[in-house]
Design goal:
Length: about 130
């Protein structure tokens, strides 16, 4: 549904922030968890990713990879989830983000998250970097 501009008939709701929704697919590669996020990652949907990260940490992964390559919009709330996860995980596991393109990688670069977090442009690169040497 398209959002309304005020010129549409009454009764057609504006879907608002987070209307596109968000899905988080959790997959395991041995002891590495990959959280594949798709859709919109904003203040409405960010708690979903937070919950998925918390649930994954119960299984004590050696690495947590958040794959944002299917995210169409990354808001500051989504970036806050990444920072919080990075801080929470600390030394207990590796933490990496997969981000490429203007919708996700560019905002992360603009605020300097690419300097704080380990960012890869592909999931394969992130998995390779997280595998034991």
């Amino acid at each position: 549904m398209d959002s309304t501009t005020g010129n549409e008939p009454a009764g057609v709701p504006d879907p608002g922030i987070g209307a596109a929704g968000c899905e988080v697919a959790v997959t395991w590669h041995h002891d590495v968890v990959v959280l594949g996020v798709s859709g919109t990652l904003d203040m409405v949907t960010a708690p979903q990713l937070t919950g998925s990260i918390h649930n994954s940490l119960k299984n004590e992964p050696s690495a947590v990879i958040v794959d944002l390559t299917r995210v169409g919009f990354l808001a500051s709330a989504g970036m806050t989830v990444l920072i919080t996860a990075h801080e929470q995980i600390g030394e207990s596991a590796q933490f990496a983000v997969v981000a490429d393109g203007p919708a996700v990688a560019r905002p992360m670069q603009l605020v300097g998250l690419d300097k704080l977090l380990t960012v890869h442009t592909t999931l394969d690169a992130a998995l390779e970097a997280s595998s034991p040497k």
